[in-house]
Every structure is written in C-alpha cells, then in structure tokens.
C-alpha cells in the first residue's frame, strides 16, 4: 500500500512540476514574475567578487524581510561605531 501511495505522490509531483513550468513559460510576463519570485537575481553577477565588509542576510517571509531591514541598519551603525573606536584607539 505504501509503495502505491509513494508512486502516486511521485507522479502527482511530476505532473504538478510540468504544469508549473509550462505555465511559467507560456507568457513572458508570467515567466518574469515567476523568475522574480524564485530569486534569480541577475544583478548579483555584477557585484565585485571580492567585496570586503559585505554581510549577506537571508529572509524568506515578509516579516523576516522587514525585520532584516532593521537588523541591517543596526549592524551598519554598530560596525561604523566599532571601526571608529578601533581607529581612535590605535591612532592616538
């Protein structure tokens, strides 16, 4: 019984995937929105490979995204404050 259930679920997943791919490629606007929602970011390729001081934040939900904005601002402030203190301590 478990084998039949697994087989049917696998077939359903393949069918659903095929339908989603077909619908996403059906029109250009749908394809663009599908790619945007799946976070294919072509702008990342334009970033320098060796960017020092960069911190990456990953957020999935809207709530996580909104809180990560606050976190990013606070991290930036804390890093700037720490670097000023470090510079002041070592250049007296």
Summarize the SSE layout with pairings.
Layout: H1 2-26, H2 28-37, H3 62-90
Find the count of extended strands (DSSP E, 2+ residues): 0
Uncertain residue segments: none
First-to-last CA distance: 77 Å
Number of helices: 3
- Count of the separate structural domains: 2
**Percent of residues in beta strands:** under 5%
- Element string (H = helix, E = strand): HHH
What class do helices, strands and sheet pairing give?
A: mainly alpha
Major sheet attributes: none
Radius of gyration: 23 Å
Mean pLDDT over the full residue set: 77
Level of helix content? 55-70%
Q: What overall geometry do the principal axes of the alpha carbons give?
A: elongated
Concise description?
It contains 3 helices and no strands.
Structure description:
The chain has 92 residues and is an all-alpha fold. The chain folds into two domains: 1-40; 56-92, no CATH class. Helices cover 70% and strands 0% of the residues. It contains three helices and no strands. The chain has helices spanning 2-26, 28-37, 62-90. The longest helix has 29 residues, at 62-90. The radius of gyration is 23 Å and the shape is elongated. The N and C termini lie far apart (77 Å). The mean pLDDT is 77.
């Amino acid at each position: 019984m478990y084998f039949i259930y697994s087989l049917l679920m696998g077939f359903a997943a393949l069918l659903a995937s095929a339908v989603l791919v077909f619908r996403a490629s059906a029109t250009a606007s749908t394809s663009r929105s599908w790619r945007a929602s799946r976070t294919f970011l072509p702008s990342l390729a334009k970033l320098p490979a060796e960017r020092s001081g960069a911190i990456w934040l990953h957020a999935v939900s809207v709530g996580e995204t909104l809180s990560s904005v606050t976190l990013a601002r606070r991290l930036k402030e804390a890093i700037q404050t720490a670097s000023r203190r470090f510079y002041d301590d070592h250049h007296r």
